[in-house]
């Protein structure tokens, strides 16, 4: 067992770190306050090849492994989780789903520009549309319908909490094609945002990851060509579950980055801030907080690497991805709360960044499957072993 990162991994990590400091840190507070979408940052990520990191070079991707992706996600999330969640959705959900299950024609038409992050010089990203007003953790309760009309489907319904909803060019939409079959009657479709009948709702005003664009998307008699269905009719639920498992690695690494960012800021501050004649890092109350932070973050990192390794080795990574996700997200929430405490009054001030990291951390316990859902998955997996 080798815990040493390869030279390529270290290069990816450094490139992501440099990008985060040079491109994401400037203006991060203002983007958060104004809910300003980080278009410029994503365009530069596309140029780096970070919007299709794990996609084969045959389809315009970088052809990197999942460990590289986790390293990049961690570094960017240390600084700006709004940028990293946009990157995560495009990589883990949209590009992965298309490459793993799409036809050759679908890959050529959609995957290649999505992996490159650009088409005709403009930003080109995707979104994953599963959640509905009455279908969150219970993904089987789909109300969006796709009615077979012979040469096309007629799509109607509403999806909400959609990351990249307002800026994406392509949607992967989960919809019910045969309600009598329950979750076995759910299918998945590639839908272009520009098609008639696609309506983008207003941007959600969120607690955290405020710069990422989260929207409700509505479909009113949208004609979807038959060739835009991914897999067989009824494949949609399985597609969603398989794809979300990979997405959980992305969110676990985002949570890891948020926690690491808060820890690094806290360590630096505790060495500079003095109380009772010495740096507060030398007071046992603070040193113990830092020790617990470092230990939990290291454990979360190893879980992320284990899930990544399982995925790259083409093993079943359902269990390891859920373990990484639930532990890393809860580590992020705990660590950021402690970071605010270590900073004292300054922790409550935006310019010290930790209050934003604390707000950003909360969503990692919710999206891509709540912590409660992760425990259901983990329990099911360990019982059947």
UniProtKB/TrEMBL annotation:
GO molecular function terms noted in the UniProt entry: acyl-CoA dehydrogenase activity; flavin adenine dinucleotide binding
SUPFAM superfamilies named among the record's database cross-references: Acyl-CoA dehydrogenase C-terminal domain-like (SSF47203), Acyl-CoA dehydrogenase NM domain-like (SSF56645)
Presence of the UniProt keyword Oxidoreductase in the record: yes
InterPro entries per the UniProt record, alphabetical: Acyl-CoA_DH_CS, Acyl-CoA_Oxase/DH_mid-dom, Acyl-CoA_Oxase/DH_mid-dom_sf, AcylCo_DH-like_C, AcylCo_DH/oxidase_C, AcylCoA_DH/ox_N, AcylCoA_DH/ox_N_sf, AcylCoA_DH/oxidase_NM_dom_sf
Acyl-CoA dehydrogenase/oxidase C-terminal domain residues: 236-382
TM stretches of this protein: none
Cofactor section: FAD
CDD domains per the UniProt record, alphabetical: SCAD_SBCAD
Domain Acyl-CoA dehydrogenase/oxidase N-terminal: 6-118
EC number: 1.3.8.10
Acyl-CoA oxidase/dehydrogenase middle domain: residues covered: 127-222
Keyword Repeat: no
Gene3D superfamilies: Acyl-CoA dehydrogenase/oxidase, N-terminal domain (1.10.540.10), Butyryl-CoA Dehydrogenase, subunit A, domain 2 (2.40.110.10), Butyryl-CoA Dehydrogenase, subunit A, domain 3 (1.20.140.10)
UniProt-listed Pfam families: Acyl-CoA_dh_1 (PF00441), Acyl-CoA_dh_M (PF02770), Acyl-CoA_dh_N (PF02771)
Keywords: FAD, Flavoprotein, Oxidoreductase
Family, as annotated: Belongs to the acyl-CoA dehydrogenase family.
PANTHER family: ACYL-COA DEHYDROGENASE, ISOVALERYL-COA DEHYDROGENASE, MITOCHONDRIAL-RELATED
Protein name per its UniProtKB record: Cyclohex-1-ene-1-carbonyl-CoA dehydrogenase
Organism taxonomic ancestry: Bacteria, Pseudomonadati, Bacteroidota, Chitinophagia, Chitinophagales
